[in-house]
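Two quick folds needed for the group meeting slides. Do the first one here.
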Amino acid sequence: MIVELLVLFIMFILPVILCRYKIIGFNYRFLVLLMLSLLAAAFSIFYGWSLMTLGITFNNLSIDLVPYILITAVASMALIFIYKKHLKPLPIIFSTLFMILLISFLQEFVYRGFMMPVLGLLTKNYFLIILINVLLFWLVHTIYINDLKSHIIILAGGLIFAIMYILYPNLILISISHAVLNAIAVYSCGLYKKEFRA
């Protein structure tokens, strides 16, 4: 239990503190996410977890596809509706799309695929697992956002992703869903522009 709490602190709280207080520069955020992903992979090997434990599976793609399509469509429409005053389509740059997909996969691997099994070692209470997951997912996004509306959207998105992953544990589908919503935020709503600046 102490090891799992230490892992949660080192991987999900300490990096945010270091970024918030500018000990780690904002320009190194992708490198930090990549390092956390490698650390999560190492801990997963240490725990002896299979790819299925981490949600990396093709077995349930056809079963879980419909719920993920529905939730992604509804969340996309909601995001566009909420930010309709700010809609400014940007030119699509494939390198940015690749980064959105990569960042979305790494975040889902770390926050859903890895964190949820770690939380499952600490408690079997799904409500508590979801709550902690949502709060830590929101915490990392506080580095990028500073307005109340965006905080609410990130909390709601984190809640939806956490519940979807508990009900339909598929890292591939949740990463695609996350990437679609990130792409809408970046290209249509103008959110997180600085996240993808060179």
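Then this one, please, same format:
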Amino acid sequence: MDYAIIVFLKIGTSVALLSMICLGLAVIFGMMRVINLAHGEFLMIGAFTAIETYHAGISIWIAILVTAPLVTGIVGVFLERILIRRLYGRLFDTMLATWGVSLILIGCATVVFGTATQGISSPLGSLHIGSYTTGAYEVALIPITLIVFGSGWGILRFTRAGLIARGTMQNPEMAGSLGISTDIVYAITFGVGAALSGMAGALVAPLTGVVPTMGAGYIARAFITVISGGGSALTGTVIASSVFGSISTAVTFLSNAALGDVALLVMALAVLRIFPQGITGRVMRGSI
């Protein structure tokens, strides 16, 4: 029984981490249709911001949940204003542009932080369940993810700001004719997506080493999950993350991490074969 609980918590943590890593991309790609190949570098910026803020004497939770998303969001708005805004509707152009941004950000981070692996200690200590032990911080990621996704869903579903954002992404010409500044909405939405990516990177920092190239280890899984989720940014991301994270973790427990990644890819291919438009493209069309 104790072992089953540990496995359940590990699966929950895996799903929570994958969901958070994908959330910022779900906003930028799922809502704005921008192929952001710099998503991994937004994770990296958030991770380094959390580390530097924590080393400056700030509470680790403020560093992770406030400073990291704030700094990354500002970077995202800046990039949207000077570059991305000129490329909306041009998928391949945005892909090339954000790939260039990715290389620039990696180079800048390497100059500033070097190539040595950095990190911060995982807070909250250990959680003992019978004869087994797991990190309490890992378990805490589950409610944190639920709160973030619940807040995002509530904002998009019930607030005027959420309605404006969804309306602008779906029909910018109509939104502009109603007096909405679509430029501002796009900038804020891109900034929010970047901020969520920065928070995800900060949440990952206590669990793994942080280096300028860390984003490469996450971007493929993030794109696979968001594309498999379909057009509904939040709902699709949650469903796809739950399926892929559960299968990957279960296979990892039964064999090893490499086969866990293979199982995730195979499941993604099966999902896209059955649902070419993604999970929510057919069964939950119209959801947020």
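Slide caption for protein two: The mean pLDDT is 88.
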